[in-house]
User: Which sequence fits this backbone?
């Protein structure tokens, strides 16, 4: 009989699941399989301090190199799982060998969406997901005087900030009317547009990229659909991700915008679980399924999944959380708002100085809050979001009314 707990995807979520299984006293075999050559590492520094050369490579890893052997975790790097057979309880590796499992956790994450454009394969066109991508982009910053960034989402804006700090001229090309518009809405998206403008970024919104131009196989700019040309010595593309749910789909699991799970992170197969970017998990607080593409989710969800795999009756219901650092702006966001799913934004503090909290409300209820350069308040924001009751907007805007006074 198979006794192994097998984890596919050796990144933050996979490593945290292995850690929790051991912490919870699981003494059986754990096999952690990942196609990258690096042991599990965290991605946020790749667009921030690591990209800027301010953080050493050793700081990005989830565990010290010896941790896996010390905890009897069979870490198999540079190894791709090509299929899952739920009936046989086996995964197949690229070399054709098979590994049996008692329980399987899929933490296969996500991959950058590629731009199907002429010139997209030129040298000098960069996507950012892995540590070697970050190394190449840092080299590009050192060699280039101007770059173009396609997409003003998280990748686009964080790499833009890093490029400006490295002294590189940047043109940002975004299809929507503002940066981060889907997730933050117009009111707060304007704050990020202002931030980058103040740092000398050439922001172009509502544009359609037609082609990446180049010669001798090397990118030298971007042509827009209106015929204009933006010269650039390197092009960084950050136009979103797609969840790596192909294995699950081929295995017959329910897949809809990622692997569909219950609140205990269990998929439609009782012995297969999913967490992190790839999981579309039922969230009890929100009363719906959500797929979260952020670090805190990949950090925390696997702890619930591991306990569920061990038979504990647990549910993942933390308030969704993420953060960003761009130039001197640091922020934390807690909550969840569907694109356009709010009817009011309440600001508390000084928006001009970028020291404020923004709250997104629907029918008077706080759905999410974001603290910008204001610290030690995110737990209080999470309590307000979790409370889910209507609040007085004028009092919410008043910095003299403690957040703890709002219904929790
Ligand atoms: C540059 C960058 C900066 C970020 N910054 C922030 C931030 O500041 N704040 C924030 O909240 N979030 C941030 N994020 C998002 C956060 O890093 C992700 O949400 C998180 O990495 C998801 O973790 P994961 O383990 O679910 O998936 P991933 O990190 O995508 O890891 C999945 C792993 O599975 C492997 N894999 C996939 N398929 C197979 C297979 N068939 N066989 C074997 N292995 C496989 C992949 O190679 C990969 O190593 C950032 C992301 C990036 C790329
Ligand atoms: N601080 C953070 O939380 C953080 C930081 C970096 C990355 N990430 C994660 O990494 C993943 C990738 O980030 P991302 O920035 O690529 O995705 P994103 O979804 O945040 O943003 C993509 C942006 O590209 C734009 N876009 C799409 N197609 C376009 C096109 N053809 N031309 C121009 N613009 C186009 C979209 O309108 C959007 O603004 C996401 O999961 C993100 O959550 C998170």
Assistant:
């Amino acid at each position: 009989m198979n006794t192994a707990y097998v984890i596919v995807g050796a990144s933050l979520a996979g490593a945290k699941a292995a850690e929790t299984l051991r912490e919870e006293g699981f003494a059986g075999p754990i096999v952690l399989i990942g196609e990258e050559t690096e042991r599990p590492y965290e991605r946020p520094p790749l667009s921030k301090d690591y990209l800027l050369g301010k953080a050493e490579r050793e700081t990005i890893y989830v565990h010290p190199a010896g941790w896996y052997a010390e905890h009897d975790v069979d870490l198999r790097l540079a190894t791709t799982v090509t299929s899952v057979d739920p009936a046989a309880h086996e995964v197949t590796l690229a070399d054709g060998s098979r590994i049996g499992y008692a329980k399987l956790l899929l933490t296969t994450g996500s991959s950058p969406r590629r731009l199907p454009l002429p010139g997209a394969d030129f040298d000098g066109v960069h996507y950012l997901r892995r540590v070697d991508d970050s190394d190449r982009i840092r080299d590009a910053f050192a060699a280039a005087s101007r770059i173009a960034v396609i997409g003003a989402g998280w990748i686009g804006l964080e790499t833009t900030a890093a490029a400006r700090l490295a002294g590189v001229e940047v043109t940002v090309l975004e299809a929507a009317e503002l940066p981060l518009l889907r997730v933050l809405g117009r009111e707060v998206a304007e704050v990020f547009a202002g931030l980058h403008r103040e740092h000398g970024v050439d922001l172009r919104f509502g544009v359609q990229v037609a082609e990446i131009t180049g010669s001798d196989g090397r990118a030298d700019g971007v042509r827009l659909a209106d015929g204009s040309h933006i010269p650039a010595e390197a092009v960084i593309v950050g136009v979103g991700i797609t969840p790596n749910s192909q294995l699950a789909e081929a295995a017959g699991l329910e897949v809809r915008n990622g692997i569909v799970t219950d609140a205990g992170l269990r998929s439609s197969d009782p012995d297969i679980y999913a967490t992190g970017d790839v999981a579309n998990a039922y969230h009890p607080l929100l009363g719906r399924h959500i797929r979260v593409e952020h670090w805190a989710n990949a950090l925390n969800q696997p702890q619930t999944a591991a306990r569920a795999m061990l038979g504990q009756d647990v549910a993942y219901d933390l308030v969704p959380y993420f953060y960003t650092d761009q130039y001197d702006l640091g922020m934390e966001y807690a909550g969840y708002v569907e694109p356009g799913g709010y009817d009011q934004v309440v600001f508390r503090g000084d928006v001009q100085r970028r020291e404020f909290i923004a709250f997104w409300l629907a029918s008077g209820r706080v759905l999410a809050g974001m603290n910008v350069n204001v610290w030690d308040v995110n737990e209080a924001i999470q309590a307000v979001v979790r409370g889910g009751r209507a609040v007085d907007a004028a009092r919410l805007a008043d910095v003299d009314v403690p957040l703890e006074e709002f219904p929790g």
The chain has a mean pLDDT of 97. The first strand starts at residue 5 and ends at 8.
